[in-house]
Design brief:
homodimer, alpha/beta, N-(1-d-carboxylethyl)-l-norvaline Dehydrogenase, domain 2, Rossmann fold, 3 domains, 8-stranded mixed beta sheet, 3-stranded parallel beta sheet, 14 helices, 43% helix
Chain lengths: 389, 389
């Protein structure tokens, strides 16, 4: 068995902090790296930046200052011999993956890498990213060779904010290695804190596994959205129908505008772009259509809202339309790729009397986003309660 | 409670006969109408045309000549006061529903309808078919008015060949009525032999429920097919990945060419055509894409097979390519919309040395379909075993 001195977990609050806390729970020392030293100082004083995460506060209180230590200083990582990287991978305006963050982090690791260290990535990547791009950066920056001098692995995170900590204990996790030697070492490390660990053939398989899970969701929500539009057109109650259509072999999802956040609207593009690069456009038609159907739902809803507002016996300018909830998910204060926010912007461009309410945002924050705040969220607006989740 | 004298079940072997047998099992007399009197004679002599259907032979042996009687003579239906219609609805070459059979049957019923009779359709229809087209035919042919003079209901069949009889006992079934009076009567009738019976708002909802169940399947198989093509392109083992991607919230289906038969390739078109008629093409883009992805899979497989054949160290003309199984499903001897048959035709057009084997078809039957039969189905062919189910 490998002797772990310390494990360095490289940032991303929502995913990295629960993982760090989970590892600390197993009495393994963790150095948690963040780019912002101020934030590290706060955290070292037991401040929990993700209060919505069940059991996290308890774990932080128990382990900060003992098994857990936060720092922005990469040279501190030399105390450990394992790096776990869990940084965000965004897409740009053209839906291409934006590797800038992961490249910088990987370079920093390469520059601080010692012989026999292990690097394991947890970020969701387009297939082949670990074995090509990231391996190359690590080897170039460290001047060392993977498997001979250091070990490389990939094990995609499969957590869900709120229940991340229980997921580490229960959820099947896949892992990959390059050489047989890497394999044993990377597997040994993860076995210390992940009970349900499954080896797969190679890193691109592990990368692909994580991505298709979210393609499944995107396509099935797109199907629900499309079937909802058809039901409305035929004046059929979609929700009544769904109740009876579903059974053990049928799982029609719920329609909504809520296909947002860091996963569903992002990961399908990883495969779409791969196929476009390979000149196999015909291999991504369904994924592409699903993305378009879901993205387009704000136009459908905007039209519905305007028609509804016109039915009210008031001048359109006086009809108060309230968009409730703009966050990623309830109790998760984040707006990345928020479709309700996009819907609010769309409605505002139509010069409607639009108000926004979200329990996670105060009046000033809503104002800064460019909207009027509505305090009386449960009463006194005219147009229907747009709680589309 | 209504007093049922006899129930007339109007044909379709695979669906109608199990239903007739199931009703007879509840000691209700059934007249089973078929267009072919010769076939009726055979059936009245206890011949079971669907031996693959579990428990059907036992039920037929017990009830034929007692609770069950087959005839092609519609005037015999006058002995009963309930009609259950379970006839096929095909689509034509342009994917429009072909109502010719159901129209003829409905006319015959209308002409033989007595006061206070009930008519319940079980065929899968495009939403609104029962409440418009079929109601109109019945009223016109009978000269009577629905709810005043006779009762009309709709309850889509949800059986599955092999296990149809157990499905009647377990599976949730939806039902609809026109007026309150129809409601009570139609519901009373079905309650006598269907335990899990659920009322929905109207007939078009019940029609829509049945159709979306199959849209779910079509889209999810299309997704699996697309993800399979991507995995192959990236040299990833799709089946290994699928095993680890799936969990309680993820159900990636299995890829295949087997999207055929009377349901999956047919029912999505019912909604697609409805939206096209309403000039709402944008409301059916995903359903349409899914259909195209699945239909197109034979081209993908044909290309793969040719490439595989070219790898073999023999002249291409000497490489024996075997298509195994051309039926709808194993043990169901039917070729409607068979994609393996379409694949075999496609390969034959490419002048390949093609053989066909299917346990359900003998040498002559395969010959009549225009293919060479291959007896040694388990050995001695060159190209890979195309058992794509």
């Amino acid at each position: 068995m490998i002797n772990i001195t310390k494990i360095n977990v490289i940032w991303l609050w929502k995913a990295g902090l629960p993982l760090a806390a989970h590892i600390a729970k197993k009495w393994i020392e963790v150095i948690w790296i963040d780019i912002d030293q101020k934030r590290c100082n706060f955290i070292n004083e037991w401040w929990n930046p993700i209060p919505e995460e069940a059991w996290l506060s308890e774990l932080l209180e128990k382990h900060w200052g003992k098994e857990l230590f936060a720092t922005s200083n990469y040279t501190k990582t030399k105390e450990g011999n394992v790096f776990i990287v869990i940084v965000p991978l965004f897409i740009d305006a053209h839906n291409n993956p934006d590797y800038s963050i992961v490249d910088v982090v990987t370079k920093s690791i390469g520059q601080n890498l010692k012989s026999w260290d292990s690097v394991i990535f947890e970020t969701t990547f387009p297939p082949t990213t670990t074995e090509t791009r990231l391996k190359n950066i690590l080897e170039k920056e460290s001047g060392m060779t993977e498997w001979k001098d250091f070990y490389l692995g990939y094990s995609p995170e499969r957590i869900m904010t709120w229940v991340s900590l229980s997921r580490f204990e229960e959820f099947p996790k896949v892992i990959w290695w390059v050489s047989e030697k890497s394999s044993k070492i990377v597997h040994d490390i993860y076995s210390k804190f992940i009970p349900n660990l499954n080896k797969v053939k190679n890193s691109k398989t592990a990368e692909y596994i994580k991505v298709i899970e979210w393609c499944y969701r995107d396509t099935n929500i797109a199907l629900a959205n499309e079937l909802y539009k058809i039901a409305e057109e035929l004046e059929i109650d979609f929700y009544e129908a769904r109740e009876f259509a579903n059974h053990q072999f049928c799982d029609v999802h719920t329609p909504s505008t809520w296909v947002w956040g860091h996963c569903i609207p992002v990961y399908p593009h990883f495969l779409i772009k791969k196929m476009e690069e390979a000149n196999k456009e015909s291999y991504r038609t369904l994924l592409n259509t699903s993305r378009n159907v879901n993205e387009d739902m704000i136009n459908y809803w905007a039209e519905k809202i305007v028609l509804k507002a016109l039915e009210i016996n008031k001048p359109l300018k006086e009809v108060i339309i309230l968009v409730k909830w703009i966050t990623y998910r309830k109790w998760v204060k984040e707006l990345y790729h928020s479709r309700n926010l996009a819907l609010a912007k769309l409605l505002k461009r139509k010069w409607l009397n639009l108000k926004v309410y979200d329990e996670m945002y105060n009046k000033n924050e809503i104002k800064e986003l460019g909207f009027e705040y509505w305090e009386k969220w449960d009463i006194e607006f005219d147009c229907f309660n747009l709680e589309l989740k």
